[in-house]
Amino acid sequence: MERVYTTPRIDKLGVRPGARVAIVGVPDADLRDELRARTHDLTEGAPLADTDIVIFGADSQPALGRLGELRTRIVPNGAIWVVSPKGKAATLRDVEVMAAARAVGLVDNKVASFSPTHTAMRLVIPVALRPSVHPAG
To answer: What is the pTM of this model?
Structure first.
């Protein structure tokens, strides 16, 4: 019997209430509705500075060239979710996404089913590369 997952997609993506989220190249009206129900800080296209989560649609290796630019727009503990076709329609392999991420100082740390046709891989700035915050004292 096939296992049925009931976790809402925006929970899988780690979208907290009030999070600053940007959608880049993901034409999914349902996703926009889900995000608007959770946060009012939603942009499309170029992410604002200090964005918590970027949901980035990529279907080719050249598209992954934007990762470096997107990295500069996220908060140190933020994430970029790379959304790409899965299964027989896949146009990117996980190892290609991982290599492009490493080239710009990002690492992958989670994969989630995004939709019946797409998968998502979370990329983050490694803890060792995040700016250190020194508590006042």
So the answer is: 0.91
